[in-house]
Amino acid sequence: MPQVTVGVSLKMYFGHRAAREWAAEVADIAARTPAVADGRIELFIAPTYPQLLPALEAVAGTRTRVAAQDAAAHDRGAYTGEVSPAELAEIGVGMVELGHAERRRLYGETDAVVAAKTAAALRNGLVPVLCVGETERVSPEEALASSAAQVRSAVADAPAGRLVVAYEPVWAIGAPEPAPVSHTRVVTAGLRELVAALPGRDGSVVVYGGSAGPGLLAELGDDVDGLFLGRFAHDPAALAAVLTEATALADAREGVRA
């Protein structure tokens, strides 16, 4: 299993040509990062639907994984405009982002919808990147309770399988700075304990998202398994800097386990 997980979502910021160029640069960075090449760092990217196949082609030959930004709760049928998790798996997508705060706020996705999508992803062999987090700034303990409840709801009736839980406090998404390290460490440490105790979730990890960027991973240290990046990693140089930090953390963890 990876020592550190780093993901990047492009949301809907890039056009098709720009996304292809970005994916090619990411593939080059991945190939030049030994900890990605040997699997100690799990790197995944989440472009838009039309960019999935080009992204898969761009990162072929590296260990970079490609994630979708969403998926339907159904495998097939009369669901105009939806994208099946079964089809995503068929084309080589390995992960899928679910429950993001923007999906909840803009499209009315509820805990029940997220749970149905999580079950669909897992039954089709996809790793859910399950986004959880409190909507308003509260104490770390309250944030942990809220986020833990979202995790439990999402997997209550889901098949066994690995999760990447992305703690993303909604009030920090798109903000100038991430949530305070003292806040985040309480929540991510608690979520790590939770997912480690969930039956059938071997290998699950907890990452932080929400205005995450270079420098944060070193501050969070052993209370988090990685980062889920947004706009800061749209600059390949910033992603490379984060992977350098992730390599240092992976090296340290490998030394502890040796």
From TrEMBL:
EC number(s): the record gives 5.3.1.1
PROSITE patterns given for it? TIM_2
GO BP annotation list: gluconeogenesis; glyceraldehyde-3-phosphate biosynthetic process; glycerol catabolic process; glycolytic process
Q: In which pathway does it act?
A: Carbohydrate degradation; glycolysis; D-glyceraldehyde 3-phosphate from glycerone phosphate: step 1/1; Carbohydrate biosynthesis; gluconeogenesis
Q: Name one GO molecular function term.
A: triose-phosphate isomerase activity
Major location category of this protein: cytoplasm
Q: Which Gene3D superfamilies match?
A: Aldolase class I
Indicate yes or no for the key word Nuclease: no
Under which name does UniProt file this protein?
Triosephosphate isomerase
- Source species of the chain: Protaetiibacter intestinalis
